[in-house]
Amino acid sequence: MAKTIEGLYYSETHEWVKVEGNEALIGITDYAQHALGNIVYVDMPDEDDQVTKDEDFGAVESVKAASDLISPLTGVVVARNEVLEDESGLLNSDPYGNWIIRVKMDDPSELDSMMDAAAYEAFCARA
Amino acid sequence: MEAPLKTTCLHDRHVALGAQMTPFGGFDMPMQYTGIVEEHNAVRHRCGMFDVSHMGEILVTGPQAEEYVGHVFTNDVRGIPDGKILYGMMLYPDGGTVDDLLVYKCSDSEWLLVVNASNIAKDFEWARKNAEGFDVEVTDVSDAFGEIALQGPEAEKKVLEVLGVDLKDLVFYTFVSIPAPTAAGGVEAQPAEVAAEGADAAGRGKSPVCGAAASGEMMIVSRTGYTGEDGFEFYGSPAVIRRLWDMLAASGVTPCSLGCRDTLRFEVGLPLYGHELSAEISPIEAGLGMFVKMDKPEFIGRDAVLRQKTEGVRRKIVGIELKDKAVPRAGYPVEAGGVQVGEVTTGYQSISTGRSVCMAMVDIAHAALGTEVSVRIRRRTFDGTVCRKRFYDKNYKK
Q1: What is the phi-psi region of residue B17: left when phi exceeds 0, alpha when psi lies from -120 to 50, beta otherwise?
Q2: DSSP-derived 3-state class of residue B107
Q3: pLDDT, averaged across chain A
Q4: What letter would DSSP give residue B6?
Q5: Could you tell me which chain A residue has the CA closest to the CA of B262?
Q6: pLDDT value at position B398?
Q7: A84: nearest CA partner in chain B
Q8: Helix or strand or coil: residue A93?
Q9: Strand partners, B23
Q10: Is B72 helix (H, G, I), strand (E, B) or coil?
Q11: CATH number of the domain that A42 lies in?
Q12: Are B214 and B190 contacting, i.e. CB atoms less than 8 angstroms apart?
């Protein structure tokens, strides 16, 4: 059973969001890292890039395949997690401890369409 | 509607191991067991076993077998000894590749062609069509054989430990027949009911070597593989191959998937049909000209290859190394000065070296070693340099 963390928001495309004021940290879930296998590269947007809800903002690459990262929120990238440039495997070993981008949210109400931990667990169980 | 997927004689083993299964060449095959990286490293440093029963086997028998094989195959089989194996291709008259394959010479009148799973039907039709005028019989015996590849530096030791057979004197690209393992372990004659399986399919009378292997009495074992490491490939009846798999598994050999078979072959620059070779890609373009013997007076595709060799080719498979860690993958465009000059055929972040590398088909003007090119990956382009396509050195025992 893939792990979840209480207090985070979850998307159907297996990203998590942690809200800090009007900013949000976005990462991938334990379920996602497990399905992908060994992650060898993270393609991240640059600072000041715009991200849009339901559109891809980068990709995580495993040995075998590239998988798009889908933004659950609209906003502007205020930081990218540079540590992942050399240590993308951290997304496997600690998916909730390693965010990918920090976004200044345009519209926090977009969070309303996301799942909480219990709903996401149920969603994964059906998958 | 698509044809249902076929299964190999080891399918239940893969499912029991919890493998991620995927369609490959018309078969339901394991894409990974525990993880591609772990499996890959097992083969590079210890040994691993692959179910390669999906590979096709075409049996050629008859008094004109050598002439016939020489007609359809690019390598030179004239006068090679029994027990010798050659790698090469079957070509279309225009130089495009029907398939790349191994040819096993059992005797002057008995030859086995080992072909890619995805091409079995096409190859068999091609082989049979071009047998006209030769006194040979061409038979698809794919279903009579299972096959296991045991690969890695410890493979020879494992065979001795598990089968009690010492293969230290088996030379690279040669094969022998050895008695098939019995249920009790060791290598003795098979009970009659096992011997019956597959016996007719390989026609024992005309093909004593392949017939004995298909019957469950013997196995064919060759010092070959597709990983760049030392190792062996075993051909036997489905029952025998299941038994061999279980014996190897019990002795701690790591089951290895098609996922790592691809990362392993890629690192040492070996081609995969459909990527570096195809009906549109000749062996010359793929950089495999050494397996096309122009001193042979005749074989299908010779005129086209001769033209390519004398006039030169317009494009070529090369290696490319990226400066960044981004992963170039099959189908991504290769660019120079903002213009597309080629396409990636296979690419990975190489497990053994950590380098982001790919093989790519590029215009000949951009094929020289050291040429600066870039690969478009999603929205960005990543700078790279044309390099040798052997990204990791082979470790064969020759």
Answers
A1: alpha
A2: strand
A3: 95
A4: B
A5: A64
A6: 80
A7: B325
A8: helix
A9: B28
A10: helix
A11: 2.40.50.100
A12: no
Q: Cβ contact (<8 Å) for B349 and A41?
A: yes
Residue A65 in domain: yes
Number of domains in chain A: 1
Give domain status of residue A78, yes or no. yes
Average pLDDT over residues A86-90: 94
Nearest to A37 among B36, B326, B378 (CB): B36
Closest CA to A74 of A104, A57, A53: A53
The pair of three-digit structure tokens given for residue B92, joined into one six-digit string: 């279309």
Distance CA B32, CA B318 (A): 28
| Length of chain A counted residue by residue | 127
Token pair listed for B238: 């489905």
**What is the DSSP code string of A26-56?**
EEE-HHHHHHH-SEEEEE-PPTT-EE-TTSE
pLDDT tens digit sequence for B221-242: 999 999 999 999 999 999 999 9
pTM value is: 0.91
A43 contacts B378? CB cut-off 8 A:
yes
The boundaries of the domain holding residue A46 are 9-107+115-121
Check A63 against B37: CB less than 8 A apart.
yes
Let me know if residue A24 belongs to a domain. yes
Tell me phi and psi for residue B278, to 5 degrees.
-170, 180
Instruction: Note the pLDDT tens digit of each residue in B59-88.
Output: 999 999 999 999 999 999 999 999 999 999
Within a domain: A126: no
